[in-house]
């Protein structure tokens, strides 16, 4: 069952990048909230730099 | 010792987004997808720090396929991901990788390899873009005050676009794991839809372009000057000039053709081996490999054009047979002109004033574009089917594992594979080539909002897929039993 959902699937609309279930113990795991928070901070940070410098 | 063992320590340590534990309710999935979409739009509006006066879009007309936006943090868009995917598809399709995607160990390596390749592509496209072309000029004002000078500012710009591209990669991963569909598809839809809506409704006050409806309002009330309809100029203005009737027809036509083509399929009947009366069908769609391989072919063309632009800005006097460039950085002659795909009606309608090329030049260019798209489309579709496990062997195994069989045949994966082999390879090649022809035709006729035809084609098809996925998702939400039948959905 574990490979069923990720091996393309019967009706899957796989994206260009494929993600599997399998994960290595060593892999660094990131919480999706961290990514979103970083994205927002990064964007706001650059905006602020633009306002301060120009 | 192969490359796998050597690269393993790096590939297994690539950071990845956590998978949700247990089933994610549909509403939460939509929430994540919408959240990422908002973040994407926000980031496309953040201007790069230290950017001087721009001279044009580096991606040019390829922008609608590659997402992102010129001069923003998301300058690179999904370009690096697509280019990395081309490399992976070619390596995987030719079976040079030696990775078996059914083996968990190899799955981890494959995932890691994808990310490493994207990082490599960020450098390969980003560095020439920032340091060797003038599409992202460093601000001189800032260079004078910063210790690093121009090089320092350029490095800052590169760091920002690299960060943006990495963010896109992780945003795609979040949508794939926590949301609906894939991030790549979402970003393409977002960009094209925005342009399409603007092309329909934008009025003069918003920018310098007037959309379809405001223009027609102007024509009907007489505020937009139109030549008499009884003359040739009048007819031309109606269809291709301000009237945009040709673009409207093409836009509607693309919608209709794609939705129709998506529904054309060969259905292989299935019945359950043990549960009598449980029947199913395995659809082999005309566009079996989906339209995603089309992005790869277009991106290949895009990369050839980038090479031309970088060469043109680096070589003092580029030989004319290789390429000559016009004012806005578009090729006007030489090899790179012929390799540039047709992007709008103005590119090939030699009888209008929009192009200076001769009829025979245009014909050669259309011929090369068509050949490239048809053959490329077929090849990438075959590779796509091979690498994503949609080939006869993989589908036969899946059908067998789900407990289904083809009525009238022995319950045996080899037998199912034989039947599948009658349809899948042929349909894949025909579908891939057909999408190629459609993409070229759509580009030639032009669309509302100057979205490239290929962009619109991708958008309609991806949206259709998304709709199917949402429908399936809702079905599972209502009947938790279905989750097992569809084989997953997170458990």
List the secondary-structure elements of chain A in sequence, H or E: EH
User: How many strand elements of chain A?
Assistant: 1
* Total of DSSP H or I helical runs spanning 4+ residues of chain A: 1
Q: What is the domain tally of chain B?
A: 2
The percent of residues in helical segments of chain A reads 40-55%
Task: Name the structural class of chain A.
Answer: mainly alpha
Number of helices of chain B: 19
> What is the CATH topology descriptor of the largest domain in chain B?
Preprotein translocase SecY subunit
CATH class of the largest domain in chain B: Mainly Alpha
Can you say what the CATH homologous superfamily of the largest domain in chain B is?
SecY subunit domain
Measured as a percent range, the helix fraction of chain B is: 55-70%
End-to-end Cα distance of chain A, whole Å, is 57 Å
Order of helices and strands of chain B: HEHHHHHHHHHHEEHEEHHHHEHHH
Domain Translocon Sec61/SecY plug (chain B): 38-71
InterPro entries (chain B): SecY, SecY/SEC61-alpha, SecY_CS, SecY_dom_sf, Translocon_Sec61/SecY_plug_dom
Subcellular location (chain B): Cell membrane; Endomembrane system; Membrane
Keywords (chain B): Cell membrane, Membrane, Protein transport, Translocation, Transmembrane, Transmembrane helix, Transport
């Amino acid at each position: 069952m574990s490979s069923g959902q990720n091996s393309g699937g019967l009706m899957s609309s796989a994206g260009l990048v494929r993600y599997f279930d399998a994960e290595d113990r060593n892999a660094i795991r990131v919480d999706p909230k961290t990514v979103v928070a970083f994205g927002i901070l990064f964007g706001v940070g650059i905006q602020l730099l633009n306002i301060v410098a120009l | 010792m192969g490359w796998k063992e050597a690269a393993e320590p790096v590939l297994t340590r690539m950071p990845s987004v956590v998978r949700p534990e247990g089933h994610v309710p549909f509403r939460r999935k939509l929430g994540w997808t919408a959240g990422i979409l908002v973040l994407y739009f926000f980031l496309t509006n953040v201007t790069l720090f230290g950017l001087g006066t721009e001279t044009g879009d580096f991606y040019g007309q390829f922008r609608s396929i590659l997402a992102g936006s010129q001069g923003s943090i998301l300058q690179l868009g999904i370009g690096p991901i697509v280019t990395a995917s081309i490399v992976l598809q070619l390596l995987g399709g030719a079976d040079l990788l030696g990775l078996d995607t059914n083996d968990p160990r190899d799955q981890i390596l494959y995932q890691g390899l994808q990310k490493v390749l994207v990082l490599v592509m960020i450098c390969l496209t980003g560095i020439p873009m920032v340091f060797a072309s003038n599409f992202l000029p460093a601000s001189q004002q800032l260079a004078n005050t910063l210790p690093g000078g121009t090089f320092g500012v350029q490095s800052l710009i590169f760091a920002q676009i690299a960060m943006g591209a990495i963010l896109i990669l992780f945003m795609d991963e979040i949508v794939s794991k926590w949301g609906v569909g894939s991030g790549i598809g979402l970003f393409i839809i977002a960009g094209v839809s925005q342009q399409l809506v603007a092309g329909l409704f934008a009025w003069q006050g918003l920018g310098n372009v007037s959309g379809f409806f405001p223009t027609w309002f102007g024509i009907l009330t007489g505020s937009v000057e139109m030549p008499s309809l009884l003359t040739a100029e009048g007819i031309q203005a109606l269809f291709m000039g301000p009237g945009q009737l040709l673009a409207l027809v093409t836009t509607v036509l693309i919608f209709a053709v794609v939705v129709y083509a998506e529904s054309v399929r060969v259905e292989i009947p299935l019945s359950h081996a043990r549960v009598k009366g449980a029947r199913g069908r395995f659809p082999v769609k005309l566009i079996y490999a989906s339209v995603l391989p089309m992005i790869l072919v277009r991106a290949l063309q895009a990369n050839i054009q980038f090479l031309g632009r970088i060469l043109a800005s680096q070589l003092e006097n580029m030989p004319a047979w290789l390429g000559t460039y016009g004012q806005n950085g578009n090729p006007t002659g030489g090899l790179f002109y012929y390799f540039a795909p047709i992007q709008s009606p103005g590119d090939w309608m030699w009888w209008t004033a929009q192009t200076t090329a001769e009829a025979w030049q245009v014909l050669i260019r259309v011929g090369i574009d068509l050949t490239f798209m048809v053959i490329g489309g077929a090849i990438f579709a075959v590779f796509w089917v091979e690498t994503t496990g949609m080939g006869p062997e993989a589908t036969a195994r899946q059908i067998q594992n789900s407990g289904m069989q083809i009525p009238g045949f022995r319950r045996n994966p080899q037998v199912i594979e034989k039947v599948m082999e009658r349809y899948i390879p042929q349909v894949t090649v025909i579908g891939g080539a057909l999408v190629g022809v459609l993409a070229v035709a759509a580009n030639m006729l032009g669309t509302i909002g100057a979205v490239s035809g290929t962009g619109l084609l991708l958008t309609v098809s991806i949206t259709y897929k998304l709709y199917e996925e949402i429908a399936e998702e809702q079905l599972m939400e209502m009947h938790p039993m279905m989750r097992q039948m569809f084989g997953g959905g997170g458990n």
